[in-house]
């Protein structure tokens, strides 16, 4: 828990620019954000795996030219379902609480839906109230609890969003 | 590529290269790959990637960036090897030439080992916790130091015993980390004598304690005994601090040995040792005040975070030495539990083990299931749960004693005589026995895994019901009048079919309830969950009631005539308490469903 109050950046809503992953020049921005904010270290191979195979699923949020948030995802066949997976979601502290994360996730999910995914999943720490609330609002359910999933011994929820089945053509 | 050994030239910055410590041999040679890498840098343009078919997420996540200390376990922190660490004095024997400091540091090592052990139990690797102790990694060299040597031996023997119990219980997923001992020196020659070695040391210190008390009260003892350490004012405190630590280890080892005895024969003895352990843990906690005050220097930082009672950092530990053995994934720094939390952990573990040891080994399955469910409410850790599982299921029998067909027979309210019936050799009944065995094992696992497994398990119970029903209809579908044995077989089938249904609904009920404990339901889903509970409970109550009616019938048919007295009829119409209880649940579930559905509408 942060004790010292974070200075909130003063911004107007339309000032956030959302961009789809555009190439290698975006990679260091994503890596910097994720390395800073998330506890597990990822090798560069991990980043490349996601952004090279599914560039259309990763998005960056810019404010006045500075990258303030990112989402990195994948999708694929998993046990007879075509499923999307949200691997990383980060928004830097001064920009939180403004719906930037929600917007990033929404864009990615929309793309997954258009690509034919039947569902979307991710894991989140059971103590990460912010993430759980965000995904809860989007309609994710807690499909499973994973015991001691993280190295610090914290459990995780597997969150799942089920897309409605495609309408039958009459 | 260069084909001559170039390690003499490999030191780029002019310092004598450490690479000389990894020399080329007859079959290996060092080659300078710098030109190759240099050329490769220009081989790909910005944004290009070579993607092999087997480059999947697992490969990417397991890949390492060489020289990134978070990922590269070959990156040396302090020492290349255990031997180098020892050569550089990381684990001195004796710890200090000053006997007082030596004793003090030994106690620190003991405390830190306890903290490491608790951290291991809680889910970290053995290699990064208990076996981060250099003394433990080279136990033989501690031989001149009786105290350290005996303590390390019993720790090693204890860890081996605990690994054995948890391995036998078969762990799953994240809990698999616990039993990873590859490469660690867990098997020691002579560890079976660890208790006698410990007893000898305990005896000496007891005599030293008596001697110093005698001196203080001006009475002289005939023994000409060397004191534990050189400061007479601290002798009593140190002796006591050591004794409770040694005794705790002794009694804990006994607990494990007793609980291992088959068919629960050692449970009563185990309880006595558990009580002793708890007493010694209290003494250990009390010793902290003395240990913190025996030197003028006080330790820095918050005492509550320290891994030792004295607050000082222990000598002789290096978690990175075993980094290659810690886990399949690259090692990350882990936080060892604080000493206080470690003691708390062991107190809880001992209480959980005590609950297991107090269990009466009830042959009635319903009581057993209730006991296990109740036990799990205190959220016991892996070691306690493994012990419970091994007590319940041994040699394919309940408590190693009751064959599962007999258990099912009793649970299905069949007469005692049928428990040895040949029908148990029937494939479906054998499978049913396995299902009951697996159910008990599943109920001993952690709640998260348990719920997922129970959900899948429902399918197996449904299948066995169908199989049994099919077998029943095939054998007795057309029979009208039948022989005695056929009557018995029919009865067995009927009872057991009913019992299987009851069990299935019980499992469904547990699955739903666990969702609350695991916080899987959002408030918006409660209405739906309670509605499912309502539906399941109605069926469960129905089957339970039928089961009881059928068991009452069995009892009745034993003695009475066919005529029903008014008293009998009255007794029959009374609803058994177990069913009444379920009906209360049904009302609750129904009420909550209605209430929550109104809330949703508003």
UniProtKB/TrEMBL annotation, chain A:
GO CC, any one term: NatC complex
The N-acetyltransferase domain sits at 14-164
InterPro entries per UniProt: Acyl_CoA_acyltransferase, GNAT_dom, NAA30-like
Q: Which PANTHER family match?
A: N-ALPHA-ACETYLTRANSFERASE 30
Q: Which domain of life is it from?
A: Eukaryota
Name the record gives this protein: N-acetyltransferase domain-containing protein
Similarity comment: family membership: Belongs to the acetyltransferase family. MAK3 subfamily.
Q: Give the source lineage, highest ranks first.
A: Eukaryota, Viridiplantae, Streptophyta, Embryophyta, Tracheophyta
- Give the GO molecular function terms: protein-N-terminal amino-acid acetyltransferase activity
**Species name for this entry?**
Gossypium tomentosum (Hawaiian cotton)
Keyword field: Acyltransferase, Transferase
From TrEMBL, chain B:
Q: Where is the NAA35-like N-terminal domain?
A: 47-144
Tell me which residues make up the NAA35-like TPR repeats domain.
Answer: 356-596
Q: What is its main location?
A: cytoplasm
Keywords, comma-separated and alphabetical = Cytoplasm
From what superkingdom does this record's organism come?
Eukaryota
Membrane-spanning regions, if any? none
* UniProt cross-references to InterPro entries, sorted A to Z: NAA35-like_N (IPR057983), Naa35_N (IPR007244), TPR_NAA35 (IPR057982)
Record Pfam families? Mak10, TPR_NAA35
Q: Which residue windows are coiled coil?
A: none
- What start and end residues bound the annotated signal peptide? none
One cellular component term (GO) for this entry is: NatC complex
> In which compartments does the protein localize?
Cytoplasm
The UniProt family comment states:
Belongs to the MAK10 family.
Spell out the PANTHER family in the cross-references: GLUCOSE REPRESSIBLE PROTEIN MAK10, N-ALPHA-ACETYLTRANSFERASE 35, NATC AUXILIARY SUBUNIT
Q: What is this protein called?
A: N-alpha-acetyltransferase 35, NatC auxiliary subunit
Question: Organism source for this protein?
Answer: Gossypium tomentosum (Hawaiian cotton)
